[in-house]
Amino acid sequence: MSKTHSLLILPGDGIGPEIMAQARRIIDWLADNRGLEFDISEDLVGGCAYDAHGVPLADETLAKAREVDAVLLGAVGGPKWTGVDYDRRPEAGLLKIRKELELFANLRPAMCFEPLVDASSLKPELVSGLDIMIVRELVGGIYFGEPRGIETLPSGERRGVNTQVYTTSEIHRIAHVAFDLAGKRRGKVTSAEKCNVMESGLLWREEVEVVSKDYPNVELEHMLADNCGMQLVRAPKQFDVIVTDNLFGDLLSDVAAMLTGSLGMLPSASLGVKGGGAMYEPVHGSAPDIAGQGIANPIATILSLAMALRYTFELGEEADLVENAVNAVLEGGMRTADIMQPGKAKVSTSVMGDAILREMEKLNG
Ligand SMILES: NC(=O)C1=CN([C@@H]2O[C@H](COP(=O)(O)OP(=O)(O)OC[C@H]3O[C@@H](n4cnc5c(N)ncnc54)[C@H](O)[C@@H]3O)[C@@H](O)[C@H]2O)C=CC1
Ligand SMILES: CC(C)CC(=O)C(=O)O
Ligand SMILES: [Mg+2]
Prior knowledge:
The chain is an alpha/beta fold. The chain has helices at 16-33, 47-53, 59-67, 90-100, 124-127, 168-184, 199-212, 225-234, 246-259, 299-311, 316-331, 349-364, and strands spanning 4-12, 37-42, 70-75, 105-111, 131-137, 145-152, 158-163, 188-193, 219-224, 241-244, 269-271, 278-280, 334-335, 345-346. Keywords: Amino-acid biosynthesis, Branched-chain amino acid biosynthesis, Cytoplasm, Leucine biosynthesis, Magnesium, Manganese, Metal-binding, NAD, Oxidoreductase.
């Protein structure tokens, strides 16, 4: 009997529902054409959950997320919720689900599809063949550290506080993920922090060094995070795996996105302990500037689904099918607006979805 794969879909806000609709069509196609059984549920997260329930992540939604094999999330946030308290903002819902499921390892692969080599803002020779894995610590650091808040001082002046904090065990577990991955790739880890000015950065460097002793075949290089940002746009192919904290990983992965042509291309997997939960999400946000226009690029979400197929559902062939279909569509010249190039055909979100499904049909034989 075939196994049932349970998946909770959380489209979220802005372009979230638009891009998720295309991922959903791919899941339905896989169920119809590859004999797979999915148990799909859908719920609210972010601003839409706040509007419905007064909180960006309802307890019932979190409970569902704990039960399923994987969560596929679109994006949260938008100007509508700017005045809402931080603990009820859409983004707080995303942080909460990551934290509650203990999804400490965020894998953000920045790969340049060959047909998009000219779509990058960098010279083609810098990005052709690019394949970097950013491993971002996801449930610690300054997004979660205490104390935090905005206080009014006796002088009447206001003071904003956030705290960067990491412990040995938090650094060790993310470093192990990075070294394990590097061992299966090109054997190099670059650890990025700011140990020149931050004690938490010094601890990070020292503890990554400790973990590296378990991996004699993996080269470890330390790099200050600001230099890492610069090197990513100067000579990105020098990197294999970059391991870094929550804040720097957030920034460096947006930088890396542009090497691939667009933020709309970058998928991610948020993983916890073995056998625990997993969440798959594009790297980009809710893109309020283009929401509702039907022009968003669904590929980051579709590739996030492919990561779920590969890492959680152990459906490597289906993951290849999705990724090869994306490559074939790009090869054929279709582009959403964000990756548009001269001489190519500009298409909408749903036409991109149609094209990927057509290629899957063809590749499926
Ligand atoms: N994982 C998540 O849910 C994230 C949520 N956010 C939230 O999203 C909201 C907007 O944030 P921004 O700083 O504008 O970042 P963003 O990632 O939403 O957008 C940045 C730029 O990239 C473009 N873009 C992003 N995704 C795209 C796609 N799939 N196709 C085509 N173009 C795309 C947007 O149009 C915009 O010009 C904020 O509320 C922010 O907090 C931001 C990042 C991640
Ligand atoms: C809520 C933010 C931390 C989301 C974000 O920018 C990200 O995870 O990349
Ligand atoms: Mg980000």
